[in-house]
Amino acid sequence: MTRRDASLTSNIDILLIGHMTVDLVPGGRMPGGTVSYAAPTYAAFGHRVGILTSAARDEPLLECLRPYGRLEVLPSEHSLTYENVYSETGRQQYVRATASPICLSDVPEQWTSVRYVHLGPLAAELDPLELARGFPNATIMLTLQGLMRRWGADGLVRFRRWFDEDALRLIDIVVYSEEDVHQFPQLTEEVRRVCRHLVVTNGRAGGTYYHAGDAMTYDSIAVEARDLTGAGDVFAASLLGSLSAVNGDLARGVRLAGRLAAYSVTRSGLDSAPKANEIARELRMVQGG
User: Fold this and answer.
1) Which of 22, 182, 181, 155 has its CA nearest to residue 92?
2) Measured between alpha carbons, how far is 63 from 42 in angstroms, rounded to an integer?
3) How far is CA 169 from the centre of its chain?
4) What 3-state class would DSSP assign to 92?
């Protein structure tokens, strides 16, 4: 990709980097992954969104993302494709195809001055350290789950230990779930030691926000869950997307994100992203008015 003129100003507020996934489900294919759930969430907050992803050249599911932002697609032979197989012993996840990696040189030049960056890997397709170095003036968030996956010839996803202290020192906010690290629980102590802001989510139980040696728990909202898919991505995007509205107060942003993620499980697919009226209502709640 040719680099653009560095003098151009950014035409986006938030840059979202990672693979859109194709999720194989009974009856067909669905868009999934952090990119797919975060983009409509950021758009609901009123942000101008840039999406840098990689997918098959003829991937029809990319059309699902176009309403939510400016789309930059690195052409690949395949799209990242996941399949969940359920049995009496539980769920097993398989990678059926992968897309091309994403590098700093793939970022359009006019997007390098963006205010917020969300690194949302789903299959270790990017290097957080390389990308974090490319946005020295941005607030950068990393959703960690996709860096903690490995697979072999059979495609079965297994746990991968990941810890990069140099990258974590450059990244402002890290978000992952307790489920993501259940095989490596000590990661939380290691990450909070070097990361400015860490949020570990725990579904209906809320989660914990770590900052400057302190830990703050936050609550969710009691709802009747319909579909849990994407709730963690909605949480993370609601946190980063809310920062301009809460004057950079991460504690308020975390509480808001926890409430909006609860709404997300009452709906399915990309419709699980928060609605403008939900954002306005919950923003008033966390601001105390």
Assistant:
1) 155
2) 17
3) 19
4) strand
Distance CA(228)–CA(210), nearest Å, equals: 24
Q: Residues 49, 12: contact at Cβ < 8 Å?
A: yes
Quote the distance between the C-alpha of residue 178 and its chain's center.
15
pTM value surpassing 0.70: yes
Could you tell me which residues come within 8 angstroms of residue 93 by beta carbon, excluding any fewer than 6 positions away?
82, 83, 84, 85, 156, 157
Q: By C-alpha distance, which of 197, 207, 206 is closest to 168?
A: 197
Rounded to 10 deg, the angle between the 250-264 and 276-286 helix axes is 140
Quick: pLDDT tens for 130-149. 999 999 999 999 999 999 99
- CA–CA dist 207, 202 (Å, integer): 5
CA distance linking residue 263 with residue 224, whole number of Å: 9
pLDDT (tens digit per residue) in 83-104: 988 777 777 999 999 999 999 9
The CA-based angle 43-37-157, given to 5 degrees, is 155
Sequence-ordered list of residues with C-beta below 8 angstroms from that of 239, at least 6 positions apart, any chain:
141, 173, 175, 199, 250, 253, 254, 256, 257
* Separation of alpha carbons 203 and 258, rounded Å: 9
